[in-house]
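for the writeup, i need someone to sanity check this before i put it in the appendix. the sequnce is what the collaborator sent (i think, or maybe the updated version? ugh). structure was predicted straight from it, no edits. if anything looks off just tell me and ill rerun, i have time this weekend
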Amino acid sequence: MAENQEIMEEKRIKLRKSDLMKSFAIWELTSEMCLSYERLMSLGFCHAMLPILKRLYPDKDDLADAMTRHMAFFNTENQFGALIPGMIASVEEERANGTDYSDEVINGLKIGLMGPLAGVGDTITQGLVKTILLAICVEMGLKGNVWGSIIFFVLYTAYILGVGYTMFFSGYKLGKNAFSKISDTSIVRKLTDCMGVLGMTVAGCMIANYVSIQTVATFTSGDTVIEIQTLLDEIMPGILSVGTVFILYALIRKNVSVIKIMGVLVVIGILGAFVGIF
């Protein structure tokens, strides 16, 4: 019995670390370089799986079948979504060694995870990390500090590679068990809600720092000149800035064209300056 197990271990096809690193590098660098309206990231996913599939399926017909299997529709966020190619690499390894995973099961795992991971990844990467880094580094650039752009490039690149690497190899280690851990909607909802609150907090800070709308209008009562801006500041500092942001947000929510909004703002600014409001 022990001898049979040793023979099976010797015959088992194993992925090398170099195979996984090549797959990860291709995923991070090229997964969105060839999108299509019909299948979006399918070609990029298939390309990332090539080092894995070539190791597992030396027969050309088996390799062709595996490549065809991964040309199905696919779309997710790159960094957190890197868990999926890592997980599929593990599943493909099991299949190549005799585990009965059908094409439908493998594609079902991909489809089941791409949505939740895209939601989490877009919220954290685009809505939080990039926003905070840009807020800091753009401020440095506006003050003439050339390090602003360099710091953004270094930190954002480190974030992309670090999160992508961690998720990819976590997916490989977890294998198909990653599906049950990630697809729990309550966990995903709590995480996205927390990131949403943090993102809104950051957005509020950015409004206070970067949106400055004040009025120079005054009115006279007898010999007293009253500045309207002073009265507004006593009610709530920055009330014009916050009010303007909320109005613009409401217009965008109603699908009003951004071009129209910008045009109206330009007209209001010119007329306001002409009549002495701004």
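The mean pLDDT is 83. The two ends are 88 Å apart (CA to CA).
thx in advance!!
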